[in-house]
Amino acid sequence: MSVPGEVNGGFATGDLIHLNGNSLGPPRTDLLDRLGTVVSEQWARGQVRAWFRDGWLDLPRTVGDKLSPLLGAAPGQVVVAGDTTSTTLFNALVAACRLRDRPVVLVEGDAFPTDLYLAASVARLLGRELVVESRDGFDAYLGEHGDRVAVALAAPVDFRTGRRRDIGSTTALCHAVGALSVWDLCHAAGVLPTNLDTNNVDLAIGCGYKYLGGGPGAPAFLYVAERWQSEVDFPLAGWHGHAEPFAMTPDFVPATGIDRGRNGTPPLLSLVALDHALDPLVAVGIDELHRRAKALGEAFLDALRPDVEVVSPRDPDQRGGHLALRVPDADAVEHGLAERNVLVDARPPDLIRVAFAPLYVTPEHVRRAAEAIHSVLSPPN
Ligand SMILES: *Cc1c(COP(=O)(O)O)cnc(C)c1O
């Protein structure tokens, strides 16, 4: 049973041009087959036994290992525990703070709102001070007051403008002053190489439903560098993070390895959907995905009238997988484009984002999208 509608590269795109890859893109056409097999062959036949006999209990880790090459991580360091990005970030931030008895949690003011809210909440909870800095101020603060910083939270791709922050040099800056780095990879995973191991990243989290294509509400992932795994103390000490969950002992003994980052019973069908979405991404590989996204971005810019203001860096190596355009009224442009079957997302008041998910967006799509933008911005008289 395949998902009906027009198909692009094995994705059920319908007649939509999806440039809103920062949210929810189309499913693969054979997703229903995969979910159907799990429901009828595993769930219906095995029922509760399927947790043990069909690998369900291991899925948070097997999906994590499948995702690892896209992140530049050796196996055993990524887990998809089944929680939201926000919950996973909370878990990572508290755990990172517990590794450094210092007063400050540092974050960029342009961070995604949930990151700001959670950093503030974690600081409040643990009696630390939240320091919010501009992009340049972030580096300057590390340079001048780095010995006060417990944890610096950063993102390799600015969610509004697409501007990149270099993971390697920022992490090195944190380490030089004895701070830990926590990376939010939401807008990088699946489109930009992050090389977590070679960049010496401490902890990272990211979203399953953006470029990874895991579907509505797909669970988030957590990376913990191997060197921290025996030390890290997560606040969400749920029974699936226990060394022996089924021993049902009263005391929490954390699992060795990345299983420590697990929490409770995972949302199995959502994990299966994410697992399924990862196959073509892993097959293509992160370097090629990045190359394709860059080529699509360049084709889009070539087709765009020069009077449309591009807020993102023009150099494709200075941005992630999306571009931001300044328009008079972002919501109106988003709606006008949607009427023309082009999905973008508005960041009011005056930005729209166009994202180039490399597996289902085509060069033809980006040319048609540019035309649609021109016609919405200056409708024919
Ligand atoms: C999309 C996104 C989230 C989403 O958080 P959820 O808990 O999954 O809703 C969080 N942080 C960043 C940076 C994002 O881009």
From TrEMBL:
Protein's UniProt keywords contain Hydrolase: yes
The entry's keywords: Hydrolase, Pyridine nucleotide biosynthesis, Pyridoxal phosphate
One MF term in the entry's GO annotations: pyridoxal phosphate binding
Enzyme Commission no: 3.7.1.3
Biochemical pathway: Cofactor biosynthesis; NAD(+) biosynthesis; quinolinate from L-kynurenine: step 2/3; Amino-acid degradation; L-kynurenine degradation; L-alanine and anthranilate from L-kynurenine: step 1/1
Entry similarity comment: Belongs to the kynureninase family.
The name this protein goes by in its record: Kynureninase
